[in-house]
Queue: 3 jobs
Job 1
Amino acid sequence: MTRFRPCIDLHSGQVKQIVGGTLSNTSSSLRTNYVSKLPASYFATLYKEHALNGAHVIKLGPGNDAAAQEALAAWPGGLQVGGGITADNAQLWIERGAEKVIVTSYLFIEARFSHHRLKAVLESLKNDTEKLVIDLSCRRTGKVNQEIIRLLEPYCSEFLIHAADNEGLQKGIDEELVSRLGEWCTKPVTYAGGARHLEDLDLVKRLSSGKVDLTIGSALDIFGGSGLRFDECVKWNEEQTLR
C-alpha cells in the first residue's frame, strides 16, 4: 500500500530543503529551497504524533550529528537515519535510537559497488538485514536497474530511491522510474524527487500498483512550500488504511 513518508533533511545542523542535483563538496553550487527556524526534534515529534512510520533523517554532509540525535531523542525507534553511515558507525546510530540506518555512497568506491563494504555494514549490525535500508540515489545518466535491485535485495529490508535530477525542483516525479520500481522490487521501496501535488500520491500508487511509497519535501507547507499541506498528506495516509 502506497504511503506518504516524510523526511528531515539536515545540512550544517539545520533542517533544509535542497535542490538535490546541486549538493556537492563546494558551497557555491548549492541551491536551497528552504531553511527552517525549527529544530529537527520539532519535525520528529510532529511525525510521531501522526504515526508517520518510516520517516527518514538524512544528514547532508558534516555538522549534522547533534541535530540527528535530537530528532532520534524525540522519537526513539521511529526514524531511519542516513548520511555518512559506514560499517564503523551503523550500529552506533541504532543504539542512538534509529529504527534503521540508511547506507548510500559508502557502498560504492569510484562508482563501483563494493560487496565487501556491504558485508561489513551488515556484520556491524549483527547481520540483521531488517536494520538496513539501501539508498540508491540516481541521475538520468546513472539509472537504477533491475540487476542492481536483485543483487541488493537479500541484504536489506527496504530501498530508498532519490531521483537527484528531480529533487527540490517540484517539476513532477520520474514516472518511468516509479513504474519500474513497482515491477522490480519485492522489498518495500520509497521514491523521493519532484513531488508537488497531493495527486502525486495517487499517481505513484497507480504507477506502482501500490508498491512504492512517496517522500514529499519542498512542496509541503511545513517546508515553506505551497503545493500541498502536511495535514492533507496525513489524511491521505489515513484514507488508505480504511480502503
Job 2
Amino acid sequence: MAEGEASLSRTFKDLFAGAAGGIAQVLLGQPFDIVKVRLQTSTQYPNALDCATKIFKNEGPAAFYKGTLTPLVGIGACVSIQFGAFHYARRRFEASNASAHPLSPATLSYTQYYLSGAFAGVANSVISGPIEHVRIRLQTQPHGANRLYTGPIDCIRKLSAHEGVLRGLYRGEAVTILREAQAYGVWFLAFEWMMNADAERNGVARKEISSWKVAAYGGLAGEALWLASYPFDVVKSKMQSDGFGKERRYSGMRNCFAQTWRGEGLRGFWKGIGPTLLRAMPVSAGTFAVVEATMRALG
C-alpha cells in the first residue's frame, strides 16, 4: 500500500474509533452534564444532589437526557475530530523528529503531546461551540408549556435569527477555543504519559496494556482535563445561557470573567466541579477504553 493510502487509511481508523468513543461518552455522561450546567447557570440549587433530586421530581427521569440528540450526533463527530486531529499532529511531530534526529527514536516529547492535544481541541471547537450552545439552551430552558425551543433545529434557527450565525449560534466561541486547547492538551498528555509509563515500567508494548488499565488511565486523564480547564467552562456556560438584547448580562468573555469574579469570587469559577469530576471518571474511562479497543480491532 502506498504511503499516502496508508496514511489515509490510518486517519479513517482514527476518526471511526473516535466516533465510537464519542457515542459512549454521551450515553455515560449526559445525566451528569445537565446537573453541571444547571449548577453553573442558576443559583436555585444549593448542591448537586438537590439539583438532581429536583430535576427528577419536577421534570421526570427523561429530563436527564434533555438535548441528547444534538450531542449524540455532534459529540460523536467531536470526539472523532479530537482523535483524528490528535493522531494527525502526533504523526507530523514524529516525522519532524525522525528528520531532525534520524538515529534516535521518533517519539514525542510531552510538550509535543500537549501541543497535539491542543491542536485537536482547537480543531474540535469549530463544531463543539455551537453544539454545546444548543445543548445548554435546551438544558436550561423552562419546563413544560413555557419552554422556548421545541428541539435542536428550532433552537439553531432561533439562535441564528437573534444575532446571526457568528454572534448568535457561535456565542462564546473565543472562550470555547481556550477551553478546548487547554482541556485536550492536558487530556491527551496525561493519558499518553500514563500509558507510556506503564509500558516502560512493565516492559510491554502499548497494545499489550490491559483494558482495565486503559480505562483507569483514561478516567484519571478526564479528571486532569477538568481541573485544568474548568473556569473556562463556567464562563462559556454563563455566556451561552445568557439572554439577548436588553436581557443580556455579559458583553463578552472578559466582561463575564470580571462579573463572575466581582459577584462570586474564586468560588464562582468552580461551581458544579463536584458532579463534573464524578462524571469525568466513567465518561473519560469509557471513551478511551472504547477508542483503544476499536483501534486494536481495526489493526
Job 3
Amino acid sequence: MPRLAPFRIGRKQVPNFTLTLLRTPYLPPTFASFITPLNINKLDIRDYLFHVYGVTCIKVRSYVQQQRVRQSAPRQWYRPRAVKRMTVEMDKPFVWPEAPTDFEPWSKETFDAAHEEQDNLRKQMQPSADTLAPMDRETLAEQAERLLSGKEKWRPQWQADGGASRSAGLFANPESRPHF
C-alpha cells in the first residue's frame, strides 16, 4: 500500500543530480544538511527524500554560499561556482553510522603515502623551494661536528664524488684548450 504524503506530490521523475549528505555534529539528530546543485529547490529535495528514503520533511532551509574571489594567474581573478546548501528538518531522527576502524578495503595506506608524496612534490615546486636545502642533505653543523671530532677527514667535494681532478677531463685534448 503506497504511503500518502502529507503534502502535494510533484511528478515522478528519475533524478539526474547528486546530493552530498554532510556530517554535522552541531545539529540535532532530526536535522540533515546537504550540498545540492544550484537548480534544486526546496520542493525537489522534499519530494526526493520522501520518494527515495520515505523521510517526511517538516521544514527545508536553503542558502547559496558564494565562494571567495581567487587568482589563477597574475592579474587574472575569477570567482568559483557558488555552492547551494540545504538543511532539512525531518520527523524522525537520523543517526550516522559508526566510523569504520578498518580501512583496508579502501587502501588507506596507499592513499596516505601518495598524498604525502604529492605534498613533497608541491613543496619542491613552490617558488621558495630554491632557497630551501634538500631534505636528504646533511646540515652544515653535523658535518662540522664530524670533522672536528676526527671521525671524518675533510676532502673537497669533487674528490669525495670520485673525480680525479676537476679540470683533468675538461682540457684533455690540447686542441680544445682556449687560446688567449
